[in-house]
């Protein structure tokens, strides 16, 4: 049976409740606005996270159950959350400040100079203070991080403890499937409850389908509520923060910059290398990671341990011969899994929507392939220095590598299609830049030509910052909302 | 929870069992040999596939439907009745085929994840004496 749409009048409507949407919700509520937040995913409590298995949480918290593919050569697995609090519920709670160099580069490319370090850095300092950012030192466990840090020191390479937004981390190693102790200051336990205390309402399970607009003004947002009924919100102001995929899909479905929104999506790529050590590492013990090697950050390369779980290890090995998988799972106390993050140069894009779902493609370039080989070489050198006796590169058809000569031989033979890559950072799909430079949004975050529509999530960033982007997204969102509030 | 027992997930569970892929997993991976682990693996794989965007799901379901034929083409036996050695050989052959490589890696990754990380969570509090 088809239901007639019912209308809900509202003042400020925020679509999405992640790092960007939560900033908009809280700042607008603090300014006395009546705020309604739409979130497609469910609201999940810390108690529920503690009671659920990681596999259950993976299905409940991640879009597409965590199994979205970016098609191309090779296929890239892409992960983002779909829950009240967005990806901040399942990330590592890392908070890095975007560098002045990156912000200057973005300013030069975009044609907008208002988001350089003095502005964005001040916003970041505010976020850092509000979320109680700490430097996460080694806890009980974290042997993989200790080994990595010592190896970096032996090579004279720069490393750092991560900056995280946690209060009393219990080192439960479940960051990626939702913190079971509530220590991680995701938006679900920080900004959003504060916004609700100021009167904001969060409608979970509601999917925004289309913006209704005319003459540059959004007059309605058509959505589907948690019961599957059509609902129409009638807002004065709209902040779109549905994520780097969701926001451009919403804009395109609404004929807002349909030829530019989502045509370019920047990704960070993760290479996963499994390392076997002669000693027990017990990498499941400890928080996600407590050391990040930043020696090659200028090249967009970062190396850190992964959030290792038995299932995560099994999944990473799934393309290998079953006997090898069995043998490795048997010695998992001696294994560590390490992530090498690389900034991808070739853009990805949303090519189409099939059955309402976006189809993603990427165009990895030869330069990316070269960077991946370089990144793997540096990672291998670091891991051998850490005491690894064997490395399994991110190519299932490649055998174990036991020294740097093996690594050179692997890098000489590996083809672009052989890489097994993961991405959890999508950005810049509706970039803030002048229209003639491919920009979708202006300097106030409004899609060009619109007066009451703003974009304030990862999609508005002009590019990939080369670091975990939560701090950058939140800083931009604060600035965008701040400019809006000053203008009304 | 999370769509595990939706009609779509149940249909995908049936499609998985019909394909013979769980038999291949049980015969090939020690972690999936135990019937409860295999059940967790199938349930997680089916429930995750049920959540995938339609285009990807259709592609995977088509590959699953064709799996018995593809397996027979490389081993001349059915995945439901093959010996463990044949199962490993068949999976190995199909893993090297363009198209099937990605599908097998993705579904096997879901299966191993579901089996190994699909059990009851650890206690809410660290054991006595643990340093916090």
UniProtKB/TrEMBL annotation, chain A:
The keyword Membrane does not apply. Residues 365-477 form the Glucose-methanol-choline oxidoreductase C-terminal domain. GO terms for molecular function: flavin adenine dinucleotide binding; oxidoreductase activity, acting on CH-OH group of donors. SUPFAM superfamilies: FAD/NAD(P)-binding domain. Pfam families: FAD_binding_2 (PF00890), GMC_oxred_C (PF05199), GMC_oxred_N (PF00732). Residues 11-49 form the FAD-dependent oxidoreductase 2 FAD-binding domain. It comes from the Bacteria. Keywords: FAD, Flavoprotein, Oxidoreductase. The keyword Flavoprotein applies. Belongs to the GMC oxidoreductase family. This is GMC family oxidoreductase. It comes from Streptomyces malaysiensis subsp. samsunensis. The lineage of its organism: Bacteria, Bacillati, Actinomycetota, Actinomycetes, Kitasatosporales.
Automatic annotation (TrEMBL), chain B:
It comes from Streptomyces malaysiensis subsp. samsunensis. It comes from the Bacteria. This is Uncharacterized protein.
